[in-house]
Amino acid sequence: MTAPAEKPADVWRSVPHRMSIGLNHQLGDDGSLPSENLTCFVFAFPGQDLDVGRLERALARAVAVNPALCHHYRVDPDHGPQYREASWRPHVEIVEPPETDWPGVRAAAQRIADAEMLTRFDLRDGRLLKVVCVRGSAGTGSVLVIKVDHTVCDGLSYAQLLDDLSAAHRCDDEGEFAARRRRASLARVAAAERRLLAGRAREELCEAWRRRLPEGIPELVLHRPTPWRACTAEGEQASTVLTGEAYRRHVRQAADLSVSSFMLATAKLLHAMRPSVLGEDLSFFSPFPGRFVPAARGVLGNFVSVLPVTVDAPRDAGLGQTVDAVREGVLWTMRHQGIPFDAIRDAVGNGHGTSGEYAYERRSIFISGNPTMRLELNGVCGEVSVPKLSDAMFDISLWISDTGRELRCSSVFRKALLERPLVDTWLAALT
């Protein structure tokens, strides 16, 4: 009798550099990751009774081309963050609330989404993706809550997953769908990053960045004496939406100034905040996609990050000069995406007043762009809403999204430091 073949040893591979920072930073002593699940959205389909079986089959295809959603992760004491390939067939949880009318269904879905924002991903036993279908009586409609743990998924990847799910729901041929959307593995991305940053390349990028910051990492803080640790994290949300002529005017102004809609919105916000927030230099955390090697294109992961930069715009700069400064800073950041995030982390975390801790212990302002979140099922695009953010990680966080029809800016701010009328004044600067 032939002896049974031995089960091959588990092969653990290094994760891409950007993802490794997220895993390293967020790992708790108990093996869990207290990450904020910012990649959680709600999609409402009024009057649509979704076929859950068909949705699960489409979800399985979308996961198959985005294997980071079913890998197992760990932080090895010698080799750092790693992953092991694994397979998993996703499941759609069905919830039928007592309130079967449409307002009751939507309210139940919102409660589920709000709770998901506070869950912790457990490295030892946890799923990175959760999909819940909330439905009422026949013909009422369905609401989907889709959460991907932020540790392995940024906003760009979440939007990509929605596109994959929409396409898989339309396509009945599993092989054809997979062939059209085949992507590189995380190991290939990690190897490409290592090659690009080999030798002097890493240090040259870091040196170029340090030359932009002769005074070190700037403190982007409110003019308040309250220590960061003395502030409660209790947050309040505020938002604004530009539609119609206000949106078209914003787009025309961005074109006239040769900047993107996001750059103009960022400049408007910083210009409005300046009397209350910024110091002598104009400094801000500039976002970048983090996909600085071709192999990373289309690969699901948490690659997006921000780079603190100081730009040339004195305190008395007008909006036009501020726009030019923001444009130059964002474009410079895009050309230097390979700056290792551990260098950014160490420089920010070791700044004055941080006690050598990570940037989240730092009083600062966060501004980020968000892609359009679009999920199409049965030819219908879901109505998008976001969960409630009860905590404010920064003094104020702002997310800007241009859908092509409207400009949305949502924020969460620390109630202990900011009052709603002031935040509304800042947001009004977008109009």
TrEMBL record:
The lineage of its organism: Bacteria, Bacillati, Actinomycetota, Actinomycetes, Kitasatosporales. It comes from the Bacteria. Transmembrane segments: none annotated. Residues 49-427 form the Condensation domain. This is Condensation domain-containing protein. Pfam families: Condensation (PF00668). It comes from Streptomyces gilvifuscus. Coiled coil: none annotated. InterPro entries: CAT-like_dom_sf, Condensation_dom.
